[in-house]
Amino acid sequence: MAGPALAAALEAVLANRGNANRVFDILEPLAGQDQAEVLSAGRTCSRLFGALLERRELFVGDLPAQEGSLAEKYSAEDKYKIWMRHRYNECVESLAELLAHDAFPVKELALCTLMKFVELEAKYPLIKAEWKGSLTFPRELLKVVVGGLLPVDEDASLLISRFQEYMEYDDIRYFVIKAVTESIGQVMQKTKERPLPFYQQNVFSLISPINMPNKESDMVKFLVKQDNWEELKVSKLQAHKQAFEKMWLSFLKHKLPTGLYKKVLVILHDSILPYMNEPTLMMDFLTVAYGIGGAISLLALNGLFILIHQHNLEYPDFYKKLYSLLDPSVYHVKYRARFFHLLDLFLSSSHLPAYLVAAFLKRLSRLALTAPPEALLMVLPFICNLLRRHPACRALVHRPDGPQDMSEDPYVMEEEEPSESRALESCLWEIQTLQNHYHPEVAQAAAALSRPLAELEDDISGLLELSAYELFDKEVKKKAADVPLEFEQIRGLFGKKNDIFAQHFALD
User: Which pTM was predicted?
Assistant: First the structure.
């Protein structure tokens, strides 16, 4: 049906209740194949039912079955409202189906129309209050929207990004959090711990940008306010935190795709833990992530650091696990700066036993033999700082009779237990080897261990993010000094001034 025909049907329905059946002319094109017709029908439905909601011409309360309502002794007014409310429900169902349409403009229109209905239902409720002053927010309609944003078999990130503007409303955010929690419970319990990559990625795309308020006075932006708003849970920061915490715990208790572990851990310390009532409930998730290995374990350190230092949580064998994370990849991973920043914090205590710090020093030094220059320029000052903090480990430097290479070294690199690695019996011959490195700055940094160490620690913050490109760019921009190549001009074939060859093979 063309746009003018839809406009005529809309005007007829709104002008005279006797034309109510023409609403089917508006609803029918929503299921059509022509994109332009679907869009036109969607916009017409928005205007039609938006006006009917504002005019209070839809039945309020538990909706009777359509057939029964016509037989019962309802007034003509009620029969009309019941009948039109059924048409409204059909419209909502059609719009929910359009959230899965192939064309994004159709999805976007369906989303915006449904959210317009959410706003209007919040102002003109279709449900009766359970008691005087109770909240009459259209939670069921919002659940329909959330369900459309979280398909199981396709990426909905573009539609979710369009929805994010609605999440700025405190009440919308609260009920979306509730709806997501319910959706996770219903969808993930059927998978028997098998990840659902599309669904879980969609959930993460929806909940990761959530901007939680820091204090109750920040909660001032509501889609609709009611007279007793201050008494309702939706206006309380504590209730928001509880819902937020429950949502994340329900999401993270299921096995995630590997890439999603990384995304969660990157935002965990900034966007999740500070807004939880009990951050220690994240311990199980972080323990699992810490045990996976590789970059995921490195990223899990951030969350564990917060729980250990701010919430006094104990982690058995923490340093043993931290020690096991030191493998050749730590100098190459994208999260190298974050890892060494945290490693620096964990090894800052002066109460750590010497054997433990020595084990870290030896392992870092051994791995440095194959590290790129940009990583070496960071780790060599890092090693110097550890020696400053822990004087008992300086024996690793000042041991002239120590091993000179790997074949004589008592240190056991493969030993997982730091106390059994025999690191204190060794020395840092690896750093001495690096004093002959091809890169002059690396050789100069390694040579610092041959001299008495200053008391003040080196600031490595500027070196943590150093890249190979920056290092190369720095070398290219250096200005080379003029160097004299020869002081005396060579004469003769072999450079001697007075030999017999100088007489017959002069070069000038």
Answer: 0.78
